[in-house]
From TrEMBL:
InterPro entries: SH3-like_bac-type. It holds the Pfam family SH3_3. Keywords: Signal. Residues 1-25 form the signal peptide. This is SH3b domain-containing protein. The keyword Phosphoprotein does not apply. Residues 40-93 form the SH3b domain.
Length: 99
């Protein structure tokens, strides 16, 4: 097997696996909508360490939704950041973007 084929095979397998598990999700345009009136905690991973907060009305892009112990978490990119973080999905108001 040539080197090119060896590299492509794992990439194809990963792409198929992501599609089957639902880990790859469409991008959604969201707004922080926390009914408690307090800033929304932004975490390093679902239910992980708090790394910041976002105020109600803050726009974010959501890239994936994951269920952890029955609760939905959204992987987001906060404004002014290139690093993805996690927030509790229930506190986002979202609209799926279509190409």
């Amino acid at each position: 097997m040539d080197t090119c084929m060896q590299v492509r095979t794992p990439l194809v397998a990963v792409t198929i696996l992501l599609a089957m598990t639902g880990a790859a999700a469409a991008q959604m345009k969201c707004t922080v909508n926390d009914p408690t009136g307090t800033p929304l905690n932004v975490r390093s991973k679902p239910n992980g360490r708090i790394v910041g907060t976002l105020k109600n009305g803050t726009p974010v892009n959501a890239w994936a939704i994951h269920s952890v112990q029955g609760k939905l978490w959204a992987r987001i990119t906060p404004p002014g950041s290139e690093k993805s973080r996690w927030v509790f999905r229930q506190y986002l108001s979202c609209q799926e973007l279509y190409d």
